[in-house]
Structure formats: structure tokens, C-alpha cells
Amino acid sequence: MSMPLKDPKRKILLNAIRRQGNFTTNAAVDIVRPIRRPKGTYMSDVAPNSQDGKAKYIVCQSCLGYFSRNYLRRHRKMCSLRKDQSSDTRENHLSTAQLFAICSGQQKDFYESLRLKHEVFPIMRNDEISKVAMSDPLICSYAESLLRKHKRPQIKNVISNKMRELGRLLISIKTISGSQMMFETMKPEMFDHFVSATKIISGYDNENRTFKSGSLALHMGTTLKQVCDIASKLLIKKSNLVNCDDNELRLKEIKRLRLLIENHWNSEISSLALKNLNETQYNKPKLMPLTGDVIKFHQYVMKEAEEAKNNLNDEKTRTKTEYKRLTECLLSLTLLLNRKRIGEIQYLTLQTYLHTPLQNIQEEFMQSLSEQEKKLTKSFKRVVTVGKGSKPVPILFSQYMQQLIKILLDIRDLYIPKENKYLFANPNTLDKYLSGYHSVKKLADRSGVTNPTMFTSTRLRKQIATILQVLNVTDNEFEQFANFMGHTKKTHANYYRLPQDVYQTAKVSKLLLAINSGNAHKYDGKALADIELSDIQSDDDNDEPKTTTKKRKILVELEQNNIESPTNSQSIQNIKEMSFAPGKTNFSLDNNSDFLQKKKKVTNTNLPKEKSWTETQKSDIRIYFKKQIKEKVAPRKQQVMEFLQKHPENFKNKNWVQVKSYVYNCYK
Predict the structure, then answer these.
(1) Which residues pair with 392 in a beta bridge?
(2) How high is the pLDDT of residue 568?
(3) What are the CB-based long-range contacts (under 8 Å, 24+) for 77-86?
(4) Helix (H/G/I), strand (E/B), else coil: 615
(5) How far apart are CA 361 and CA 373, in angstroms?
(6) Contact (Cβ atoms closer than 8 angstroms) between residue 657 and residue 524
(7) What is the bridge-based pairing of β-strands 392-397 and 381-386?
(8) Do residues 36 and 72 touch, judged by C-beta distance below 8 A?
(9) Rounded to the nearest 5 degrees, what angle is found at the Cα of 355, between the Cα atoms of 351 and 360?
(10) Is the pTM of this model over 0.85?
(11) pLDDT tens digit sequence for 292-310
């Protein structure tokens, strides 16, 4: 007040005092006096601060004035009390203003002690759901405990989603019971309200008994039990965040609520939600990228990478766009080669790639490898990073990919700040990485593949796991492959490996036909691939009358044995003219007795005579198929045929099925 009346600073300070008083008075009330008012209104007029679930007026954290949502960004650029006017980073003004308004209330000290304020709150959307979640101390305490449990910075997105789920739940409970805070709802009599609110936010259809979001309904019970544990912790510690007269009584109520959720949430929601999820899963078509599209996509990405590499090698055409283009191509090639989860690749740090520790390789392992496998171990670089559940996940880089990375590292200082630790860093960012999902999606759209939406890391992982079913892979090889993919054998078999319709129809139906024919014992020691359909009589053949089948067999055997005498020619004609109508089983073959005699002779001469195995044959088989016998794996048909070609004299009286059966019996 000591400043001259016309001093500009005096006016700025008076406005600051006025706005501070307005903010302090109305911070806890949903009524504000905005700085920019509609025409025809006065300073004494007040406005309700809500419109369609969104705050109509937002506070500026610098001058504490209230402005409309659409005008806040323009005001922030010219605010006289703003200190960081020259900031180059893009700011989300609405989220920042919401965070300031919430953290400046009565619980200011509580919010200052939270990591959430600096890591999770800034990325949350500015809407009523986030506001409710951020304003509730119990929800914030639960989110803070989740944040402490995890190490990777990407967990902040998961925690933000968890907070918004609880925020939506609390909003629904408000409409049902009127409870304003989550701690007030921690009572056993609120169990039915929790069930009803969960059904509302998960889109439950009471008529069809289905959920729009079955997964949300499924895991909400677990989330509520964890919230109960956090509430009990706050009561035991006598935290000032929870106000109650009798702590012991509230503890008993929370434990009873948790017991209700633990025992009855399954029958109320989880069981139905799980059934709905399973039905939706198997009714949904199981689509994967076609092999031809994968080849086409790979060729296109290689072409793009080569063009970007050439442009970066030339200083005249070297730009930030080309650097980002090559990084996106390299990220896509890494995903296509390794089929890893997209996060395990895009989160790979530069230090992890450069400082891969050397490992001592036993000579016995190297000697057991073929020459081609030894060359592969020298040409590929193996990098181990942290995957899901803090498991080690290896990533392979070919020589060509290593060359591309070297080009990027040579000019990295031109486009990537030193503070950015990621190998696939986003240019001109301090801590951002390129999004693998968007990079692959963009290249897939441009490559001209049949269905670009199929090119995701999950579908590519499912494709290679499904195709693996066709190969004859041992249990040891299968386990090694599952470890490389970063999951267990059970996860690989139950989640990633899809039961293909064609494979099931072709392979399993052949097994069923063999069993139904009553001759399953003939295929002892055979794999499904070794069973020939010609050995099995299908159900269609069994639908014909038996007399017709007999007639067909006689005609086929006559023609196959080339009986060309006039008598037999006449016999064939007589048989063709016979009546084999259903019910007429007694027919005369007196005129065809000569044919029957010759038929018996021919049939008897074609029967193979079983001969015992000689010691030489046994020795040759055991030596040649030593590896298969040791690993208890039946040899393939091609392997047996190669063996028979190498020993033609010793195995004149044996076919490939007999040899394979002998190998099977050796280790059985």
C-alpha cells in the first residue's frame, strides 16, 4: 500500500492479494468467482464450478486466479507472476492446475511426502474421475504402496489406471449410498454397495448376465482387499489421515468387510465375469499375421532401414527425421527377430546394450554344436535385459542390426540428449523412448500387408508359438525356447500356443478314425504324422451296405491283379451285373469259383512274411539312432528312409515303419 497509486507493480500485487483471498475462501466450496466473467455479470456474482462432470473454471497456480478451461492456456503464456516463462517443455496446463488445487488444501503435508505427486499425478487426465481419486487419502495411500513395490518407471501408467478404477467405483458408491470418502465405505454393510457399484462401472447387463469389461469386475475384488489392508495399516499406525472415535471397532469392521469380499466376491461377481471372459475369448476369431505378410513386412522394413542408413551416412541428407526413421525400423526388426514383448525391447537401455558381460563358454558345449550353429554364435550378439516379473530376457541382434546401431550411436549426440538412457530413444527428449506399438503399426500400414492390425508383439509371439507345434521339438528344446521368450512352459502352452482349427481337424480326426476302426494296436510306436489315411476305413465307407462293400473289394482285387483271361473277364462282368440290394445277402458265385480260387492264391502270395530281427540289424539300428533312443524320441520317416538307403542289403525284408517301431520299443 506504500507504493504510488499509478505504479504498475501496485496493481499486480493488489490483484495477487485479491485472487489469493478468493482462492483461500472458495477452495473447499464448489463455487468460484472467475477472473474473466461473461458480459452482464458483476464481481459479486458467483458461479457453480461444474459442468458435465468437468470443472468449469481452473485455477492458475502462479496468480491463483480462476479462468475457464479454454482460456487457461492463453493466460499461462502471459501470466505476470509466472516464474518459468522460458520453459521449452510442453506443459499440460489443465492437469498441472488440477494437481495444484488438490495438493494445496488441508492435506498439503501429506501430498508433499508422496512420490505420486511427482511421478503419477502429472500424467493423469484432468477430469472428475482423476479429481476424486487424487482427493481421497485412502486411494492415494494404496497407490503409494503400489509405487513403492515396483522399480521400473513404466509402472506409473498402471498405478494411474488403478487410481482411476477406484475413483470410478467411489463415484458410483456416492450415487448409491452418499458416502464421500473411500474410508467411510470400509464397513461390512457396504458390501452390497460395492457389488452394485462394480457392476455399474464394468457394464453389467442384468438381462443377458454379461459384462462389457469382465476383467475389471474380476480383479476389483483383489483391489478392494488390498485397500482394506491399507486402511487397517493406517488405523493401526493411528494416522491423522483417518478420523474415527474407536479404532478397534473400525478395525473389526474392515476385517469383516475383507472377509466378506474374500468369501463371497467369487459367487457375486468373479465367477460370472470369468465365464463371460472365457466365452468371449473362444468365440472371438483367433487371428494371427500370415507368413506371407510377415515376409512382406520384413522386406519393406529392410528397404526403409537401408534408405535411412544411406541418408544418415551423407551429411547433406542427415536429419532428425531420418534418425528417427532408422530407429523405428531397427526397433521393428528387433521385435520381428526376437518376438519379445514390446516393452522389453523399447525399454532397453544403452548401457545394457554396450556393457554386456562376457561369459565363459565350456568347450564341451561348443564341440556339441554343428558348424552352422558355431557361426551363428559368433554372428549374433546376445543382450540380457529385465523382463516381466524382473526375469532375465535375452535379446539377439544380427550383424546387420549391429551395424545399424553403430550408425545411430555415432551420431547420437546430434539428436539425443545425454540424459536419455534408452537405446531406442525419442529424439530431443530427456527420458522418452519410441513407442514400439506405434512404430510397428506405422510401418505395417505403409508396407501394404493384408491386415496391418495383426502386427502386434502379442500376435507375433502367438504366431511363432503356434507354428512351433508343427515341428518335432523335444522337451528340452521346448523349455529352452520358452525361457528365451521370457515365460514358463505352462504359459507358453496355455496362452501363446493357439489350438489351430486345421491342425486339430487333420491330426486329431486321424487319431479318432484309427481308434474307431478297431485297429489302433496296429499303430503302436507311430506318431500321428506317420499314420496313413489309406490304412483307416472312414465313417463314410461304413455307411454303405456290407454287400456293396464286398462287391467293390472283389472288383478292385480283380483289376489290381491283372487277371486278363476270358473266363475272368466274364467273371468281372457277372459280378458287376449281380444285384447287391440291401437285404439280399444270399447271392450265387458258383459261376465264379475259378475267380475265387485265383483270388485266394494271389492274396496269399502277397502277404508279407514276418521275420525276426538279426543281430546285425539290431546293432545297425542302435548305432544309427543312438541319439533318438537316448532322448526317447521316435525318428521321422525321412530319417528312417535315409537309414534304409545306407543299409539296403541288411534290410531288404524290412520297411520304414518296422524300423521306426523297433527304435520306439528300444527306449520304451
Answers:
(1) 386
(2) 47
(3) 80/12, 81/12, 81/16
(4) helix
(5) 14
(6) no
(7) antiparallel
(8) no
(9) 155
(10) no
(11) 888 999 999 999 999 999 9
